[in-house]
Write the structure tokens for this entry.
Amino acid sequence: MRLTALLAVAVLASAAGVAIADPNKEPAMTSRTATGPFDVKLAPQALSDVAGGSGLGRMSLDKRFHGALEAASTGEMLSFRSATPGSAGYVAMETVRGTLDGRAGSFVLQHSSSLVRGEPVQSITVVPDSGTDALAGLAGRMVIEIAPGGAHSYRFDYSLPDAGP
């Protein structure tokens, strides 16, 4: 009896053009690219007693993004510069709070990047499931450009679940 009722509802909904929600179906996603400048302040921080003699550097991050990403971020970076000119690496985590194409919330970026004899190799990604509020479900990758003279800009390729009706 119960199965017959469910089948009848499905047939009627189908005939009426009504979609039945599938709880296992991923939400529709929109892929976009956001670009713009950003300002960054780095402040040296003390290393832990354990890491004190390691040759690492530690910095706090304070950024202001402009453009389609209108946000502020704070975070921490660990870095190392080798004896070979132009070779270095850093890892960082930063929490970004603001709006992305008008959608407000926060998310976390994870950095793991290198400079190989002057050539950058970047990996800056959104930590899975770190998006909050209207940015829940955010996924993406960011690329940072530093122009001659030091001006910083970003390109953020991302996807977000489509906003509801």
About this structure: The domain at 25-161 is CATH 2.40.350.10 (AOC barrel-like).
